[in-house]
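>> received
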Amino acid sequence: MKPYAYCPQCATPLIDAEHGGRLRRVCPDASCGFIHWDNPVPVVAAVVEHEGKIILARNVAWPASFYALITGFLEREESPEIGVQREVEEELGLQPQGANYIGVYEFTRNNQLIVAYHVPATGTVRLNEELADWKHVAFEDIQYWPAGTGYAVRDWLRSKGYDPQPMDWPRRS
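>> returned
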């Protein structure tokens, strides 16, 4: 599926054309000049530490067995550190106690660039409408999923002296 069928500036049907060494969706109207660059979207992810464990959550749209980190889109006028703490507050109802940078990870399937942080948090979990469930998982019991935010979990746990193993999970690209 193409992200755009019509130019968002002038409503002319877009075409595929080489631009910058790649095929891109472009407006053929020379007076418009729109090019859909399809750059990755920045997303923040939180390894939420709460009561000595990590919180994993399940989005309402996910299968019942899949849990992952708290994630969200970065807003235009906020730093990643502020954005990741905002997501923890919004999605879990917890009070973040800071944000410690873990790393940047690609998630090519969704055209996202993930900026991951460790976020210690306090309070009582109160899920918002985006989440169906959550669970505490002891550091030593986590198996990371070999994609996107799973690598952030792995790297953070390794920095704490743990040796997490990958879960048996089919990787989709």
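>> The chain has a mean pLDDT of 93.
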